[in-house]
Amino acid sequence: MRKINFLIAFLLISIPCYSQSEENQLCFDCHSDNTLTTERNGKTIPLFVNEKTFNNSIHSKIKCLDCHDDINPDEIPHPENLKKVNCSKCHETAVTHYERSLHGEAYRKGKYLAPSCETCHGKHDILSSKNSKSRTYVMNIPALCGKCHKEGTQVSKLSTVYERQALDDYSESIHGEGLFKRGLIVTAVCTSCHTSHDILPHENPLSSINKKNIATTCTQCHRQIEQVHTKVISGRLWEKEPHKIPICIDCHQPHKIRRVFYAESFPDEMCMKCHGQKDLTKVVNGKTLPLYVDYDQFKKSVHTDNSCFKCHTNVSFSNNPVCLNSGKVDCSICHQTQNEDYQISIHGVEHAKGNVNAPYCTSCHDTHNMQSKNSIPSPTFSRNVPELCAKCHRTGKNIAVSIDESNKGIITEYTESIHGKGLLQSGLLVTATCVDCHSSHRELPKSDQRSTVYKANIATTCAQCHLGVYEEFKKSIHSPEVSNTDKKLPVCNDCHFSHEINRTDQSDFRQQILNQCGKCHEEVTKTYFETFHGKVSKLGEQGAAKCSDCHGSHMILPTTNIESKLSRANIVETCKSCHPNSNRKFVGYLTHATHHNREKYPYLFYTFWFMTILLASTFLFFGTHTLLWLPRALREKRLKKKVNQENKAEPNGEQSTE
Amino acid sequence: MENNPLNKPNKLYYERFDAYSRFLHLLVIISFLSLAITGMIIKFSDSSVFKTLSDLMGGYEVTGSIHRFAAIITFLYFFLHISYLINKRKKRKTSFKEMLKGESSLIPNKRDWEEFKATLKWFLGKGPRPVYGRWTYWEKFDYFAVFWGVAIIGASGLILWFPEFFTNLGIPGEIINIATIIHSDEALLAVGFIFTIHFFNTHFRPDKFPMDTVIFTGKVELEELKEDRAREYELLQTDDKYKERVTDIAPSPALERAARIFGFTALTIGLLIIILIIYSMIFVYQ
User: Fold this and answer.
1) pLDDT, position A15
2) Using a CB-CB distance cutoff of 8 angstroms, which residues of chain A are in contact with residue B160?
3) Residue B4 domain-assigned?
4) Predicted pLDDT of residue A494
5) B128 Cβ under 8 Å from any chain A Cβ
6) Is residue A478 a contact partner of residue A489, using CB atoms and an 8 Å limit?
7) pTM of the model
8) B240 has a chain A CB within 8 A of its CB
């Protein structure tokens, strides 16, 4: 019974096996002949299939006809133009990916260099990628891809110089080294990053090497990489604003050797061997540049944990010395956001134009002696910022010569301003410095719409600190959100001058505000100055009501608005702030009255003219009286003198009377 | 008649103003100059000259206080003068009629009109110099100008000083604006009149130039009085009340000197204010 069971089991297993191998045998009857060929488009094509190889292949268990499904084994010879084998019958995903990939697309277009499935996997000799003999085995991938993607091949002529060296670069990279030298099969090979079938150009958003996806791609292996990088990049950014952080390849250039970051390859000592010499110089364009680096100082800098090569990335063993023509340091490798801002800024634009006066990263941050902005002696420490900017923006300094007249002396003005005094005299570090308004890297002229000091952006810029004021201002009649007008609306710096900004309770400010409001409200300012408040203000009286004392400063509302300080409901209270006994009649005082306007102020007009006529007639009358009197009196005096003299000459003469 | 100074040969003087009146005029000068300077500073606040003057005096707060203090003095001399008139009438037991119509009354009358006409004729060379009495018509005008001025400027000034009080009584707020115009222009009239017309009529006219110190010393030489105010001279020959005021005691040299120094200072300040006003009106004021 047991035997029978075994027999049945054996039969059940062996029947299909037998039948399959038998079916295949039918094919091999012809195709194991290595002289079997056919002619297609005038080319002789071998039809030999190595039975042994096939039987070793991963497909040995499937029938020939499973793949070559349009062949009728009874029809010999087979008809011409048989279909190509369609792998998608079993490998649907792989083929779908392939078809949308660079390779598939090129293949469809009939590019003869384009690979199809068999180019990488072979035909009848397909081995599992886990088989170390397979062409797609991890160790063999670089070679497989390199067949096309290495220097000198026809494919390489289609690509950029940089891409041509991909394989060479890879073999020298940490990944390549791991794979080739250490036989580390978990190391990344071409397909680890580019995927095996879904190979897409990096511009394609679906691509595994697209900017957006690269982090995911790399973190397949480098799981803990975030923690490692929080030293360089604020941890918060990784979670909340991933688009703001540099992507892996911004620092770790693909294919290229990245192990230069590691001290063991290029230790700082190697650099300091030469650069520690004080007399080391080079000559560029006839200028002698010092190449000495004070290493002790560098070690005190904020970059102390970085090795030389972290910044000087273009160093290569293929050069002698390794740093030959390594070029300028690209800070954007780590400080990408700042660099993007800088490129937009007037500094960056001018620098790109070749303006020698335009600052580069190092102009403000120094080179090897770079300090954190939190370090007190650092030039970028908030208290030192004005002095830093003044290096160029002080009257007489490089930039100051090319900026317009109105901006000269901004440094002095700032120093004397409330911000400047707060910062420099009181040491109040939260006080606004140059960069708080102009931004630290994206300085743009005020005419530029993107600028933080562009008219429409000023309020928001100031709101960074003065939020409360901003919220009030937004509701006022001066806010563009409230007033829909073509007229120019004032923003913060129209009243609070940008650099010479003053305390509002200081005399200058209160005097100036009249000029400020008067710029737009010319008529009411003129009439204000005809009234008592205006007249004594002109004399420098601080107590007298200024525009803002009655109208409010930031939350100015039309008098028709019930909320206004000057609305019927509030005006008595408003006047009370200076006139404690203010009353309903008292507030009827015309604060902007003029006696020149007959329609609006008839009483004042007629009073004024009555008084003027009274004055004119009085002076006319008595003026004439005096002018007639004077010559008569003079003549009489002369006459009297004459008579007196005559009397002296004749002392006995009659005394002169009129 | 031995004591009658008229019979003595040396220089004789006639006391035109008693000490009380002289003192009041001193108050008038001091307060008026103060009010003029501090007031014009506000009226012409556009002018840098007045702005500088304000700064020199210690700013608006100080000039404002001076102005109000001087205003109090003004009200004071006004009432002192009224009480002087009342007391004088009681003492001399003169009737109201005499007080208003007498030779020494300041009330303008028909003779002033005649004198005015005669004066114009004299100016034009068509007649002799009229014979003036104790008060000429322009002096009477000056006198009542002060009455008018103190009343108008004083009342409007009080409104400006206590606007809350007056509006509380029910006066509309616009009255404050009107009071400002009246106060300011009436003051300009007063200042302009005193520092030009009064200065000329009293001090700068050729027969008194450069100044008449009688208002400080109170005494005028009898000879001069005879020439200038023949009618008053006539009066003192006959009327004992006037005769009493004749003396041979000359004003003390110290008083004379003080009078000149003070007088010239006041005149100079007045003229400077006029120059500043004219300058400001031409170059600054609209």
Assistant:
1) 47
2) 532
3) no
4) 83
5) yes
6) yes
7) 0.62
8) no
